[in-house]
Structure formats: structure tokens, C-alpha cells
User: Fold this.
Amino acid sequence: EGIPPSLKEKRGTFVTITIDGQLRGCIGHILPVTSIIEGVKENAINAAFRDPRFPPLSKDEFDRIKIEVSVLTFPVPLQYKDAQDLLNKLRPNVDGVIIKKGFHQATFLPQVWEQLPEKKEFLTHLCLKAGLEPDAWKQGSLEVQTYQVQAFHEE
Assistant:
């Protein structure tokens, strides 16, 4: 039972798997639905074998994967007046961003800023991930939340 109390804390978690620097799976929970240790176990299996964007990992790939675990803070609403205000309030490389509109929702972890460092491009791709029009973020009708992560990764 030697699990540290901190790993029993309920927090949102994501597990990201890459091979040669390319995304190979990323699954998680934004909200704290389980303990950190349970969330990481569940999300690691799902990222490896159940991410609908990729085929399940093969035995041949196991030696090449890199795993990153992200432990999330609780999301907080980001109030903004218009598209420019939203751009001004985003903090690249600090904030993960959740957007919601109706039944559409998506998130990017703060690490995604490394691939999409321009705020407009980041939001455009996030809208597409949510199944929205690419410029939906310009209309001022999205619910936006931000969160931060502690990321742990292999060297």
C-alpha cells in the first residue's frame, strides 16, 4: 500500500505518448474524477490502445515510445470581451485551454503551445478539434477555461 498520499489526491490527468517526437496517443480527464495514480493508469492504457486517432501501439513500438504525464489544476473560466481581449489574456506555454460551445468541446494542454506558438493558430486548431468552424473563436461566443499542469516526462 506504499502509495504516497499526494498520488491519492483527485486531480485531472493526461498521458501523452510520442514516438520520435510525433504524437502517438493522448488521453485524459480534465476534471478530477479519480486519484492521480488511478487516472494515470487508466489514461496510459487508453492513450496506448484506445486513442481513436491512432491504431493501438504494437510490440515493435514499445522500445521507442516516450511517455509524459500531466497533472492538471482545476479549470477556471476566462472572462473576455471580444476576440482581441481573448488573445490578450491567453498565456502561451503556461495555460492549457478548454473551449466549449453547445455540445462541442476540446482542450489543448499547455505543451501544445510548442507546436502552435501563435495564439490565433492555437485557437483555430482548437476550434477544429472541437468540431467548430476554424474562426469560431473570433465570434466571442465560446466558453473558455484555462488550467495549468505539472508535467513529468522521460528524458
